Amino acid sequence: MKKFNILIPTLFLMTVIWSCSEDFLEVIDGDEYTADALYQDQADMESALNALYFSLPGADITGNLVPYFWTDEAVHRNINGEGRYGSDFLWTATNDFLDDFYLYSRIADINYFLEKLPGASYNDESKRDQHEAEARFFRAMLYEQMVFAYGDVPLLTSTISSSDDPARDPREDVFNFVISELTEITDMLPLTYGAEDYGRITKGAVLAIKARAYLKAVGWHSNTSTLYAGAEEACAEIIADGQYSLASGIDGFKSLFYSTGDSNTETILTNIYIEDLRTHALARRLALKGSWRGTEQTNSNQGRAGFSSDFIEEVQTINGLFPKDDPEYDPTNPYINRDPRLAVTAVLPGDLLPKNGDKDDFYEYQPNPNISGFAGNNDNIGTTSVGTGYAFRKYIDYDLDGLDAGHVDLKLIRYSEVLLMYAEAFAGQGDDGNALIYLDMVRERVGMPKYADIGLPTVTRGTTGNNMIDAILLERRYEFAGEGQQRWWDIWRYKLGDQVIGQVYGIPVSTTEPGDLYGEKYKANNSDTEFARVWNDYYYLLPIRQTSLDANPNLVQNPGW
User: Fold this and answer.
1) pTM of the full predicted structure?
2) What CA–CA distances, in Å, run from 351 to 284, 288, 344, 362, 364?
3) How far is CA 304 from CA 76, 82, 503, 511, in A?
4) Tell me, what's the pLDDT at 375?
5) What is the mean pLDDT of residues 58-68?
6) pLDDT over 70 for what percent of the chain?
7) 16 falls in which pLDDT band (50, 70, 90)?
8) What would the 3-class secondary structure string for 354-395 be?
9) Alpha-helix residue ranges (DSSP H) falling in 217-359
């Protein structure tokens, strides 16, 4: 069992308070607590702080992954009347999924904690400083997310009354606050912890969020040179501290998405899950309907998400070329000799999967309804399954007792992202030589040829106008596909929306060439209308939720909404 003292629910205003220490749980009756009785001593503050860890993005396809469906790489099909979570781009200011980053209830919890901290009694004063730094980290992280999504937002650093109506502060002021906070707390946190505190915020996590903040501001900030320089400095410090390294080879990369790969050397920030105690249903949400669901799971797998043909067809061959440019590419056998990360990332037509009902019996995944023998299966593109024929694979573990009880940790920041941010920071300052070194480190880990040997690719769809940055963004697609929001950030910050957002396509119609690059393709969900996306530039700022506008007359909606 994982050892830690955090991330078991310690929501002290609920009926039960949980605390975890090594291999046992202590359950405490929450009725004895009131707001005045809490926050009195170090133990109280530790419990309160642990609850703030729920500010981290969770392993939920309808939460952390939602903005990934706003990219050119993936869609989410309509299921159980939930809608497509914005992947159809039929957006209005009242869509619930667009206000998921308006996080003032969490900001209020953090501010309250920080106000109570000085008055609590501590046995170890160094812990007070550490607790302050952890709480300030979460607040800075949340404000960074809001600044990226909404632009100007109210900057609240203390609790307010229900009658207060704060106005929006300038985006750059809030950004400067984020950078200042992260700078001040960097050395208040340790480089690493013992096993009992695995998952707590480290110095490396602070610096990585800081580098992200700098680079995510590239699309709107008035001085991009300072952004690239700031990201370079933050990444350089992470690398110099020597705490992290890439998991070795493609097997190491693959292990990151299984519980056996938790506590690895690559993960800088993680959200912890524990078998039989704190689990998630991400695997069930993603797994194909026809595949094994576990002995303990009663509900069907859902196959909610699918990769687009735009993504699949731009994953390079093992020669470091786009399939369309590689004379060795075989459209009748399109998934051999590709970047090895593709097979770890996606379930592809022709793959063998453990069969629902008998884990030891494998079936061929074939989403093309025109292929003889597959027209009536649960997984073809004409049924209520993956809408493109290219399914997600990361975080699906068929050895689970039930796919709705996953306990692999969600890897929020990996060292490979730091290396690619470092490369981008150099490229943004015109230092392509150093950029190439760190870009190639990520490629070389999985056996892809170094660009230093073969030259940079020519990206023609979704270009920033900078060849090196284009190559880095392409690598980020290969490295992080299907696991987080990186592609959303990249499209938004480099203003690529009008280049890459449009009709979403899936597998080729051809029954003989599953890798046909030029023939007809199925439209996503086999529908002419569901994913016929139209881009609007005002999407670069999400709308302020209508309930907030109604409650606060000093808030003004973003343009276009």
Assistant:
1) 0.94
2) 18, 12, 12, 10, 6
3) 6, 11, 18, 24
4) 61
5) 92
6) 93
7) very low
8) EECCEEEEEEECCCCCCCCCCCCCCCCCCCCCCCCCCEECCC
9) 224-241, 249-255, 282-286, 309-312, 341-345
